[in-house]
Write a structure and sequence with these properties.
Rossmann fold; 8 helices; alpha/beta; globular; about 55% helix; about 170 residues
């Protein structure tokens, strides 16, 4: 089976489900945001604050270039990775792209309480979530598999991804 690449908005479960998937498949999990933080020596929020979103997106694409050469891994991406078509094309070369979705209210409940989401540091984060989801929806739909994680446990979502990926590999 190819790499499994998880895309989706923040709070849809990419990292959590990625960990479960990796364990079930006996693979390593590569978290692109974590790789960026290690390489840059700072948190994503700091990168946004000091370098801006445009530079962060460039760093993200550089990281995808490196990671896309790996085989037999589960890759958890950042929520905005889909904004550059080249990222998805690179990741799709050796991978099956699974997009994770959830309702805006579920996402808000999952991500509220922290300040590590630079795009949500606004007066009305729920409205911002809706706005970003509306804008990104066509990009997220450029996936091989779409899984709504709103009412699923991480293990159920992971099992559904595995079953769909197996069908695609036939």
């Amino acid at each position: 089976m190819k790499n499994i690449v998880l895309t989706g908005f923040m709070g849809t479960g990419k990292t959590t489900i990625g960990r479960v998937l990796a364990k079930l498949l006996g693979r390593n999990l590569i978290d692109i945001d974590s790789e960026i933080e290690k390489a840059q020596g700072m948190k994503i929020t700091e990168i946004f604050a000091t370098m801006g979103e445009a530079r962060f997106r460039d760093i993200e694409t550089e990281t995808v270039n490196k990671i896309s050469t790996l085989s037999n891994v589960v890759i958890s991406t950042g929520g905005g990775i889909v904004l550059r078509q080249e990222n998805i094309e690179l990741l799709r070369k050796k991978g099956i792209v699974a997009n994770l979705t959830a309702a805006p209210e579920i996402i808000f409940a999952r991500v509220s309480g922290g300040n590590d989401r630079p795009l949500l540091n606004v007066a009305d984060p729920l409205a911002k979530i809706r706005e970003l989801l509306d804008f990104r929806r066509p990009f997220y739909l450029n996936a091989d598999i779409v899984i709504d994680t709103g009412d699923k446990t991480p293990i159920l979502a992971a099992e559904e991804i595995i079953q769909s990926a197996k069908l695609m590999s036939r």
